[in-house]
Amino acid sequence: MFSVFMALSLPLILFFCTTVWSLFRNYRIARQVGLPIIIVPISPENPVWMLLARYMLPILQYVPFGNGHFSRFCHIGWEFDEKARAHIEFGDAFMFATPGKNWIYLCDADAVHDIIKRERQGEFARPVELLAMLDVFGPNISTMNGPDWQRQRKCTAASFNEQSNLLVWKESLRQGQQLLQYWKDNSDVDGPSTMAKDTRTLTLDVLVHVAFGKSFDFYGAREKRATSGPLSYRDALALLLENAILIFALGPQTLRKLAFVPQLRRLSNAAEQFRQYMLDMFEEQAQHVQEEKAQGNLIMSLVRASKDDKIITQDEVIGNIFVFNFAGHDTTSHSFAFTFMLLAANPEVQEWMAEEIRHVVGNLDILRADYSMFPKLVRTLAVLVSHVRRRGGILLTSSSLKHYDCTNHSSAS
């Protein structure tokens, strides 16, 4: 009995000892930097903790150590809850000491400007080891540095142009009209608001159309969908994006092994179907390249770079397709959701915006509004820019130094 107990407890003991030692080692390094230190006993970027944090933190509020720095800072997205409070309390720069990495948080414009300047000079780089989880469907621009990043950027940059903006404009008008009609039809339905989910759907539909040339009609969160059988490309991608942290933490291969769990089985099927959709789309676009049927979207640019220029692999094409959807989806949909909420709370701002829209568009059918009207919608742009400034979709930007000299008090997160 004792041997069984030891066999079960030994891995936990080793894990605990390793964590404590790593935290102690990083704390000693942090002390040499000379900034205020916040000890965070679990690395916020730990994949397992990313899955468990939302369930564990409410429980930890009731234990003696759980209602302090642990519950404040030991989870992804704490910056949104804290706003400027942490910097008011600890200063313009402070440091997290965690078992994984030490993190420096800055709230000084000159220091941030200097870091960005030195990053462009090659001294700072993105911590690709922390972004490696984004490689779930293949290497991509988010997990590259140096020449590899430049190579992939060259492949993707060509598709971000005025032609793409025109596609965004037209599809956004179509999706927006369908969203508005759905909200009108369901305005008297009781229950919690589905606005956040609906803006996610709208954003995804526009991304799918512009990036890959696929068009779907809008469907709302209250509309019934199939819960079994094959998923469409959009539904497979939507399911993956809704469960992105789980995908990053486990990966498609581990999900496949855990498919005996009903909830994970559908997610595993979505991952497999999405990859197959990508392979089929790759071959379809490759045929268009061969037949010189040019299309100005992201996947065509990537396929052309893979087939004609031979500078990007098929796995990198699929990896970039997923990461561009992931990077652009939540940031945009969250911005819309917060903006709509703030507009609902401030009807005078709604009227201020509507006055300009009526002046620019006039009596024209909104679906026929021309892209040339976009620069004239200054008030609408001002509202969006003001929101992004105050509640940005990206909470922080991280850079790293591989080598640093603590004796000179220089380090980086």
UniProtKB/TrEMBL annotation:
It comes from the Eukaryota. It is found in: Membrane. InterPro entries: Cyt_P450, Cyt_P450_E_grp-I, Cyt_P450_sf, Cytochrome_P450_Monooxygen. It holds the Pfam family p450. GO terms for molecular function: heme binding; iron ion binding; monooxygenase activity; oxidoreductase activity, acting on paired donors, with incorporation or reduction of molecular oxygen. One of its GO terms (cellular component) is membrane. Transmembrane segments: none annotated. Keywords: Heme, Iron, Membrane, Metal-binding, Oxidoreductase, Transmembrane, Transmembrane helix. The keyword Lipid biosynthesis does not apply. This is Cytochrome P450. It comes from Didymosphaeria variabile.
